[in-house]
Specification:
mainly alpha; two-stranded antiparallel sheet; globular
């Protein structure tokens, strides 16, 4: 196994599990806010909806297909899964449905834009928290971490991850809104900044390490 570069504070098991639980809740809130804002879903969900419509399958089935694909590719690249990856795949969808049941759906842009912005920030915080636990992030994050393990900087890795999901989603007929494009450009820097704030550096394979410009 290749050696890795990683300089991170040691977290207690209790802290790591607590961060996982909080991240699940925040992901649900963030996704719910993005959906309720109706300005465009995240690139990963563009792919899910595109596959669901093209192959006439339920959204949950499309989610499992894309999750398996991104998990598998991410692992090959060097990303790591864990028990939290499996638990998240099971519990987040029902949590999102619960959030959607209580969130308003404002018609005016004055309400939708702040809702979208808040959802974007909350979702980035959730992603950063679960990554720092090293107990298993979601499929998009495993793919991103695989790219990071290959020496690609955090923000750029997220741009590639979301760019691939968006391109495939459009090819399959998924719907894209202005918010989708904003998400694709803004999410990478938000995640990079969040990980820095948490003093966490994702592992990089020494053999593939590069110095970011």
């Amino acid at each position: 196994m290749a050696a890795t570069l990683s300089f991170n504070p040691v977290l207690t098991t209790r802290t790591r599990v607590a961060r996982v639980v909080v991240s699940f809740v925040l992901v649900s809130i963030g996704v719910g806010l993005l959906i309720s804002a109706q300005l465009g879903v995240a690139p990963y969900d563009v792919l899910n909806t595109g596959i669901a419509e093209t192959f006439d399958v339920r959204f949950g089935v499309a989610f499992l297909i894309t999750a398996a694909t991104f998990y598998g590719t991410g692992i090959v690249l060097g990303g790591r899964t864990g028990w939290a990856s499996l638990i998240g795949t099971i519990v987040i969808a029902p949590l999102v449905e619960g959030v959607l049941a209580i969130l308003p759906e404002p018609e005016a842009m004055a309400g939708r834009v702040p809702m979208f912005a808040l959802g974007l920030v909350v979702l980035a915080a959730a992603v950063c928290l679960v990554i720092t636990t090293e107990l298993g992030p979601g499929p998009g994050e495993v793919f991103m971490l695989g790219l990071i393990a290959r020496g690609i900087p955090v923000a750029r890795s997220r741009w590639i991850t979301d760019g691939i999901a968006l391109a495939l989603g459009v090819a399959f007929g998924g719907s894209v809104g202005a918010g989708t494009l904003i998400f694709a450009f803004a999410f990478g820097p938000l995640v990079a900044g969040g990980l820095r704030a948490l003093h966490y550096t994702p592992p990089v394979n020494v053999a593939n390490a590069v110095v970011a410009p």
